[in-house]
Design a protein that fits this description.
This protein is about 60% helix and about 10% strand. A hairpin with a 5-residue loop joins β2 and β3. The longest helix is centred in the last third of the chain and has 21 residues. The N and C termini lie far apart (about 35 Å).
């Protein structure tokens, strides 16, 4: 699974679960916890409504007042949106 596919699947999974841990996602996507942390950071930077809590009952949560509607894009549409966002980020950073 490519990174773009993983991020799209991760958005769908997170939106369905609402509450999760890094370990749960690492197991589900068969990647390391560090990879999941990088992916979550990238999703947060893209505006995905996440927050984390520390402690025994901690984990990641999707902001309840900003729950995303069901994603209705085809896989190719979602990939196009993802890569367009990546290109815009690169363009903005190269202007600095």
């Amino acid at each position: 699974m490519s990174k773009a596919e993983r991020l799209i699947e991760m958005m769908i999974t997170i939106n369905a679960k609402k509450d999760f841990t890094v370990g749960e996602l690492a197991n589900e996507f068969s990647v390391s916890k560090r990879t999941i942390l990088r992916d979550l950071q990238e999703l947060e930077q893209a505006g995905f409504p996440l927050y984390s809590e520390v402690g025994a009952a901690g984990g990641y949560h999707i902001l309840k007042e900003r729950i995303l509607p069901p994603i209705a894009f085809s896989e190719s549409e979602a990939k196009a949106i993802f890569f367009a966002c990546q290109a815009l980020q690169y363009h903005r950073s190269s202007d600095a």
